[in-house]
Amino acid sequence: MKIIVTGGAGFIGSHVVELLCNHNHAVTVIDDLRFGYESFVDKRAKLLKVPLEEVHTIEKEFENVSVVIHLAASSIIEFSYREPITYFENNVMNGIKLLEVMKKKGVKKIIYSSTSSVYGQPKKTPIKENDPTIPLNAYAASKLTFEHILVAYYHSYGIQSVTFRPFNVYGPRDEQKPRTRAVPMWIEAILDNKPVSWYWQGKQIRDYIYVQDVARVCLEALTLKGIHCFNLGSGKGTHMRDILQILENIIGRKVKLIDLGQRKGDPEKSYADITRIKKTLNWSPKVSLEEGLRRTFVYYQQVGGI
Questions:
Q1: How much is the pTM?
Q2: CB atoms within 10 A of CB 217
Q3: What is the pLDDT of residue 304?
Q4: Burial of 116 (0-12, 13-18, 19+ CB in 10 A)
Q5: 67 beta partners
Q6: 149, 95 in Cβ contact below 8 A?
Q7: Does 177 have pLDDT greater than 90?
Q8: pLDDT at residue 176 above 90?
Q9: Which residues contact 217 (CB under 8 A, 6 or more apart)?
Q10: Residue 166: in which H helix or E strand, if any?
Q11: Which one of 114, 124, 189, 248 is separated from 156 by 20 to 30 angstroms, measured CA to CA?
């Protein structure tokens, strides 16, 4: 199958590309490397260093493509407060440009990575796909907006779509700059023998899903017909203090802590109901939290820190 992956040089995208290549798919990566790394791209894939806003200049690459996996996005929530226009331009308008090229070239399937942030402050857990979506920032709003656009393009032009709402994805190659995700921040502090900073004394409950399990979902969804939306998580809530405990078990010692207190807009509990994706795709996570954190720690240890 001929597949295009936008953002294929990034954290999640590079794992998706590697898995697709392992299954003998012909993969083309579109990534301008603003947030990705050329070294992360599997050598079996073709890399086009093109900004998404210029996707019309490479429309020939979409000929005979079966599926587009759309992972490219502006994703650092902190920046979305300062630059909301940039987030809507990149996550919405550039996404529409991608859909227009697909429409022109007859590509009838897109797999899209949204975000669990579309739920805002959940009123109950576990969170189901039909629970209220109340985005609290431009990032979440831009992602939810594109979800609605995909629905419109399905009914108007027959472009099928599978949307995933990932919860807390972690694993190797998470090189987000600046770092905002707890696991790589904590591993960085541990490797540098510095105190670990956390909020709420680690009492928050989150849903962590290993990046290779996320990639496997993209593979399973390639032949799914119609239009779908799925939560993507482990289906289990884990206290942040337990995440730290696992890391301490891996390194064999206690770490020093800096409590940053409360954080505005930080839900007390957020974890997914994954019943729908289990039933539809027969998918469930394979990598345990303990094993995933061990693999992640070993990876960063081997590359000399983060």
A1: 0.95
A2: 21
A3: 66
A4: buried
A5: 3
A6: yes
A7: no
A8: no
A9: 164, 230, 232, 277, 281, 283
A10: strand 160-166
A11: 114
- The verdict on whether omega for the bond into residue 184 sits within 30 degrees of 0, i.e. cis, is no
Pairwise CA distance, residues 100 & 26, whole Å: 22
Find the angle CA(174)-CA(86)-CA(88) to the nearest 5 degrees: 95
**Euclidean distance between the first and the last CA atom of the chain, given in angstroms as a whole number:** 35
Chain segment 1-27, per-residue pLDDT in tens: 999 999 999 999 999 999 999 999 999
In tens, the pLDDT along 201-220 reads 888 999 999 999 999 999 99
Q: Which long-range contacts (CB under 8 A, 24 or more apart) does 253-257 make?
A: 255/189, 255/190, 255/195, 255/196, 256/194, 256/195, 256/196, 257/195, 257/196, 257/197, 257/198
Q: Is the bond leading into 126 cis (omega within 30 degrees of zero)?
A: yes
Catalytic residue numbers read: 139
- HSE (side-chain half, CA atoms, 13 Å) at 242: 12
Separation CA 149–CA 162 (nearest Å) = 13
The two three-digit tokens of residue 15, written as one number? 């794992």
Please report where in the chains the tokens 């779908």 appear, as a residue: 228
| % of the chain surpassing 90 pLDDT | 86
CB of 170 within 8 A of CB of 296? yes
In tens, the pLDDT along 139-174 reads: 999 999 999 999 999 999 999 999 999 999 999 999
